[in-house]
Amino acid sequence: xxxxxxxxxGLKVSQVCLGSWHLPRLxxxxxxxxxxxxxxxxxxxVKIAFDQGINFIDxxxxxxxxxxxxxxxxxxxxxxxxxxxxxxxxxxxxxxxTKVGGQMAQWVNGQGLSRKxxxxxxxxxxxxxxxxxxxxxxxxxxxxxxPPLETLMALNDLVKMGKVHYVGSSNLxxxxxxxxxxxxxxxxLSGFVTIQExxxxxxxxxxxxxxxxxRKYNFTVMAYSPLxxxxxxxxxxxxxPEGSRATYSSGLRETLTKRDLKAIEELSEIAKEKGxxxxxxxxxxxxxKQKSLGINIVPIIGVSSSQQLVENIQALDVSLSxxxxxxxxxxxxxxxx
Length: 337
Ligand SMILES: NC(=O)c1ccc[n+]([C@@H]2O[C@H](COP(=O)([O-])OP(=O)(O)OC[C@H]3O[C@@H](n4cnc5c(N)ncnc54)[C@H](OP(=O)(O)O)[C@@H]3O)[C@@H](O)[C@H]2O)c1
What we know:
The chain is of the alpha/beta class. It has one domain (3-235, 286-318): NADP-dependent oxidoreductase domain (TIM Barrel). The protein has twelve helices and twelve strands. The radius of gyration is 19 Å and the shape is globular.
């Protein structure tokens, strides 16, 4: 495993991160009819990740692990499960990122980036994760009603209190990122070391919008949904298979029913010619872009089984020639999702 510094910090993270938005699932449902997370299989996934040298885990206060969107009865479940799994590991051996900003309660301060909400949610995340601090605390979504300086100062106070070590953001506009970074300079506060953004063969928007900022401010980009939620695997070529994310994610199902996935078949052929799977090609492609884009990109791998993790980690051994990258991008550009 290769390790990279997260942005301009001294924190070393594995070149891929393990995600927890969706986790392995049981067929069994809870009293609300929601699928349960398979904790034993999640333990296996985390063990394989650690054994392979992945020290970086991403979560968020809102994640459930087997439900999207998440209702109020199920918020925080992924953090709780990670807390249960990670208690068996040496705390200092891993780097945990979690996020704040999304709605956690119906009352008026139940969401957002105010000092009140951030201080409440770090307490809750640490309780669920059974940790004394998180390594990286990310803004999950923008909050146009809170002054950015209030948010930045609250995050910096958490750093001073030792509850958070580094800060980052996700899903902010380029203008919002700039505003936070310029305030951090002006007030001599810790700015972001990472931005977490959707990035995959089908969705390359950040190359034009946020990657120039990553170069300017020396951010590591944590690339989420590297397989476009599973579309960049062979699984949806013949419909929606039982047990897949699209069976319970209406958003993903909608995307799939609207689009023609013919070009996915072509991508799958490119992968086959190389003797790898499409998911390996998709992850290897992201890693290959670091050179031409001039930044560190850490794909966040999400899996519903330990086999998927084993398969996806093998992407780290794949190297793509310039011609292979070009051909893959030409085919992928035909897919509009
Ligand atoms: N900041 C944000 O707003 C944000 C948003 C989204 C995600 N994230 C983070 O990024 C992580 C990754 O996102 P993601 O889960 O959407 O990633 P993804 O890689 O695009 O999709 C992962 C899903 O693809 C399927 N899959 C994975 N490997 C496969 C393989 N080898 N063969 C067939 N299918 C495979 C699995 O779904 P099945 O259940 O169908 O098997 C898996 O859950 C999340 O866990 C989360 O930590 C952050």
